[in-house]
Write a structure and sequence with these properties.
binds 3-methyl-2-oxobutanoic acid, single chain, about 525 residues, binds zinc ion, 3-stranded antiparallel beta sheet, alpha/beta, about 40% helix, 8-stranded parallel beta barrel
Length: about 525
């Protein structure tokens, strides 16, 4: 059996299914480039048939990414599979990932299909997919809650049709490690041609065991591919977290005996990029990528680490891409220094015009903030990645007044397409007043579900504030992110960014459901 563990990243597909995490094509491409730098083996770029937007995103990623395999999800029908194949045409290495549910519950209640119908459809789908693409993966959705005998029959048939990877999902996060590992092992034993495919696991985190279950699938079950997402992003409690699986396997190589091809120094940059793009903040005590993951607060620990690092540290922060906040640039830095720093951060810009626009924003920021850190540049470029057509609303000016004993008041000017709108309002605080002023003109009627503010770089009140605003309207949930040294301005930017997402209607078909 191979001693390489294949890392299949589904941040851009399953991760994106998380309410509010939907990304634009440009945002997805930027993350895909970072995943390529991270050297993930497979990037699941989206679900091409779910919407035109997703089709275009998968296509753009397939056209640009050269090192990683690019994959599209497809339901087990000819239309979805043909759409996936079409989107993947330009890929150096392409994979079609087709799936159909196999648990009694899903077949009866969701698909309203009999076992025989599901069996036939799975076979035909893999046959059709193999005609379009050499590399085909098959997933029995809700596989862990399926009857093992029936499941084994389906899997034997799809392997015979040419599926190269068999991925077993714990779709609802119901598994526990020992049982899940044994389930995969027993399934492989039941399927006569199991050695003709790579076995993979795909675990959700509803009981907080997605990483443990995935690793048990590897050690007990013999799986050699793990499906995971950056920061564990995903619907409900999320998916198995890439950084945790990768660092577990690397740090405990003595136990797992497996190699991963990941460049771990790109983990923290990838985590930041995903969090800044989606507005899903990483909890401070999150393993590997949380702000406190390498912070030793207790005196005993600090003393130990100073004497000998490995007294309390099992990984080195710099190995996973944590660098001490570096002052990289300032007010006097020129365009060349800025451009070079972008390159060092792995940020690619399509044109000189884009670099000029980002540089103008940088200068504007440097006028207001003496020290510019890597994190500031990443946030600034995140703002920049919004194209004119996605940016219907844009903040032009904001002033606010707050004083002890007075009700705060804000005045806001913003662009709505070609129009310039002005509004003012009172509020409980200056943020509330600013958002109310904007809403008084836009009249979106959206419900504010979340407002959060974080310092982009820790340890200083000079840091930029990064604000996330989550809005819900008519069943759609969107996140907007805004950054600025002034948190009221950051809040207005975040609110307008969320309104832009609501404005750009993109309806998609859900992968599950
Ligand atoms: O969780 C799941 O079952 C999935 C499949 C579509 C692979 O995401
Ligand atoms: Zn899933």
């Amino acid at each position: 059996m191979s001693d390489k563990l294949i890392i299949f990243d589904t941040t851009l597909r399953d991760g994106e299914q998380s309410p509010g995490a939907s990304m634009t094509k440009d945002e997805k491409l930027r993350i895909a480039r970072q995943l390529e730098r991270l050297r993930v083996d497979v990037i699941e770029a989206g679900f091409a048939a779910s919407s035109n937007g997703d089709f275009e995103a998968v296509k753009a990623i397939a056209d640009h990414i050269k090192e990683s395999t690019v994959c599209s999800l497809a339901r087990a029908n000819d239309r979805d599979i043909a759409r996936a194949a079409e989107a993947l045409k330009g890929a150096a290495r392409a994979r079609i990932h087709t799936f159909i549910a196999t648990s009694e519950l899903h077949m009866e209640k969701k698909l309203r299909m009999t076992r025989e119908q599901v069996f036939e459809q799975a076979k035909l789908a893999v046959r059709f997919a193999r005609n379009q693409c050499d590399d085909v993966e098959f997933s029995p959705e809700d596989g862990y809650r399926s009857d093992p005998e029936f499941l084994a029959r389906v899997l034997e048939a799809v392997i015979a049709e040419g599926a190269r990877t068999i991925n077993i999902p714990d779709t609802v996060g119901y598994a526990v490690p020992e049982l899940f590992g044994a389930f995969i092992r027993d399934l492989r034993q039941r399927v006569p041609n199991s050695d003709q495919a790579v076995w993979s696991v795909h675990c959700h985190n509803d009981l907080g065991m997605a990483v443990a279950n995935s690793l048990a699938g590897v050690t007990i079950g013999g799986a050699r591919q793990v499906e995971c997402t950056i920061n564990g992003l995903g619907e409900r409690a999320g998916n198995c977290s890439l950084e945790e699986v990768v660092m577990a396997v690397r740090t405990r190589r003595d136990y797992f005996g497996l190699d991963v091809g990941i460049d771990a120094s790109q983990i923290v940059p990838a985590s930041r990029m995903v969090s800044q793009t989606t507005g899903f903040v990483v909890q401070p005590n999150k393993a590997v990528v949380g702000a406190n993951a390498f912070a030793h607060a207790s005196g005993i620990h600090q003393d130990g680490v100073l004497k000998a690092r490995d007294t309390y540290e099992i990984m080195r922060a710099e190995d996973v891409g944590w660098s001490a906040n570096k002052i990289v640039l300032g007010k006097l830095s020129g365009r060349n220094a800025f451009k070079q720093r972008l390159q060092e951060l792995g940020i690619e810009m399509e044109s000189e015009g884009e670099i000029n626009a980002a540089f103008a924003r940088f200068k504007d920021l440097a006028d207001r903030k003496a020290e510019i850190f890597d994190e500031d540049i990443i946030a600034l470029v995140g703002d920049e990645s919004v194209t004119a057509e996605q940016e219907h609303y844009r903040l032009l000016a904001l002033s606010q007044h707050s004083e002890t004993g007075e009700r705060p008041h804000a005045r806001v000017a913003f662009a709505a397409g070609a129009q310039e709108l002005r509004a003012e309002s009172d509020g409980n605080g200056p943020v509330d007043a600013s958002l109310k002023a904007i809403e008084s003109q836009v009249k979106s009627g959206a419900e504010l579900m979340l407002y959060s503010v974080n310092a982009i770089t820790s340890g200083s009140t000079e840091s930029q504030g990064e604000v996330t605003v989550r809005l819900q309207l008519g069943g759609r949930v969107v996140n907007g992110v805004g950054a600025d040294p002034d948190i009221v301005i950051a809040s207005a930017k975040a609110y307008l960014s969320a309104l832009n997402k609501l404005h750009s209607q993109t309806d998609r078909v859900a992968a599950q459901g």
